[in-house]
Amino acid sequence: MEARVVRAVQKRQVLFLCVFLGVSWAGAEPLRYFVAEETERGTFLANLAIDLELGAGELSARGSRIISDENIGFLLFNPLTGDLLLNEKLDREELCGPTEPCVLPFQLLLEKPFQIFRAELWVRDINDHSPVFLDREITLNILESTTPGATFLLESAQDSDVGINNLRNYTISSNVYFHINIRDSGEGNVYPELVLDRVLDREEVPELRLTLTALDGGSPPRSGTTLIHILVLDINDNVPEFVESLYKVQVPENSPVGSLVVAVSARDLDTGSNGEIVYAFFYATERILKTFQINSTSGNLHLKAELNYEAIQTYTLTIQAKDGGGLSGKCTVVVHVTDVNDNPPELLMSSLTSPIAENSPETVVGVFRIRDRDSGNNAKMVCSVQDHLPFVLKPSVENFYTLVTKRPLDRESQAEYNITITVTDLGTPRLKTQHNITVTVSDVNDNAPAFSQAAYTLRVRENNSPALHIGSVSATDRDSGANAQVTYSLLPPQDPQLPLASLVSINADNGQLFALRSLDFEALRAFEFRVGAADRGSPALSSQALVRVLVVDDNDNSPFVLYPLQNGSAPCTELVPRAAEAGYLVTKVVAVDGDSGQNAWLSYQLLKATEPGLFGVWAHSGEVRTARLLSERDAVKHRLVVLVKDNGEPPLSASVTLHVLLVDGFSQPYLPLPDAAAAEARADPLTVYLVVALASVSSLFLFSVLVFVAVRLCRRSRAASGGGCSVPEGPFPGHLVDVSGAGTLSHSYQYEVCLRGDSGTNEFKFLKPIIPNLKFQITGREVEEYPSCQNDLGF
Fold first, then answer.
1. Which domain holds residue 659?
2. Which tens digit of pLDDT belongs to each residue from 625-640?
């Protein structure tokens, strides 16, 4: 196998590799590998891991690969072993043409971290082409008067091989008239010259046929032949001569087809046909014949095809001027192709990383190389990206650039970037190339869920059904994917006495809140708790919000009458003097409602009355007052039913029954209670009692004086010691009553009731108030105090 690394070169490579690893490799020698053309595919070239002194598996771990400018897949690289193999047969002539040496540069790119090693594959020529003459027969017209020693330049053979395998020698078949002289052009090419050894005699030898053989320097050598046909002519003693033997011109590569390159001119001193000159290419190559054409009469050289500076920079043409007698002269035209800026820059992307994790520090997004096939300023380039993007280009070696992030990226601000890399050359006019790439930003869980409100207020009507949906909380997360999936939960209450787990529950997926049991406004009017929202990122992020639940009152409590009490004991009887004026305050019905708001607004109305129109009830205060003056015709006993109603929907109500006795005065000695009076009325007629009363007027007067004295003494004793009035035991025990604002009236007052226990007729006596002429406030109104009935509240 001809593909092997020369030992001396390997030693040099090791030395250069050490320098490469120690310092920046911008000036290091590239690794060189040699292979002969036409070598079989799969041939082992080298082991890059060994040559670069890298550890086993390091090439694979660092993301290595082979790249080249021309993107030619002539190499096969195994990053696991580091072996570099030939991927296809190479034809040196097709790859490099006449250029020697034939060097195919390539690079070894390591991505993690970014590093580039330069290398070259030198393709050695083998002798696989024979010399070829373009014409199978060469015709020469030689005057018989030509003196020995004259030379005749012959067509050169073409050999695609280079170096030692290129054309090296010419031979001619054996004869006595001519021999071959080898002429070197100075550019590595040899041309054959036919040298006349003796004078020709047309009459003796009118023509000659000789074989010209071209030999290359290969081993074994290859050859090619052509036939030389020599015609001996009569004398034509003037040869055409060019004005200049060498023409040098410069032609821009963008010159249009058909444009004039140069005008050559020759002259011949002969006359007639011997002085008529015809111009033609002298054994031009196929490439020249395709590119140029010459006017045979004028000698003007024109373009036949477009020029390309990047392919060929110089053309060398030999133009022959031949007269009618067969004599010819030659000149050389050297055409230098000048470069114009006709090639836009090229961008070769080597690697691209997308997506990029947000919040990452400076990150390499892509690696690429730029080139321009022009030369000079036309090949100088500048590279840029948009200024407003958070990316920057960093130049490396060999026109390599890395695209890196300026700062950590935020996916929530922008999830995708469209980057335009612009490469502009410095030619005139300037040409540019734009390459668009799209870089996406992958999400990192850097945003906690955010509630739409910091605090939520929910209202729930009491007596709700269990599992009732009472409201929702909502939180959003600016992240994406699992990082944006929000889960809701109830947080432990700050008040340990609040049984939150039995009151509400929350749907973990959508944040809907449900009441677990029926709520009672009278037991729990409001409560608050905190809910949490956590995403499913790693680590998970969370936030909190306050939820305040207000229980809305429902009209589920009927009014409750505090006074007078309806507890099944003896009914309350209110005493009203017959002398009372209209509007006299009989009593006040006091009621409360367990509800709130308008459900607790109470109104009072007189539902039933023994004598309608005699009494009235104030709707808002519950005060029972006389509606007119009392008369002797009004009944003594009256039964009133008062309805207490709230303002709920539907309204609830309660009723209370009042008994009212009309008396002539508070000092009336005989005043039976409703039940007792009813019993006596059934036992004795009223007239019996009147007679008895009239008969005992005198005795009662005395008894009254004694009682009055006793009461006065009792009052003095109580004022001194705080004691009450002592009376005998009986159906109505006498005591001192203190009525506070919680009772029927809103201001405290006192009065005495003393009963005679030994009275068979249960007669009683009203005494004057302890604080005479006491006034008190009842629902904003001043009324005169009158003694009221003994009742269960302490009156």
1. 560-663
2. 998 888 888 888 999 9
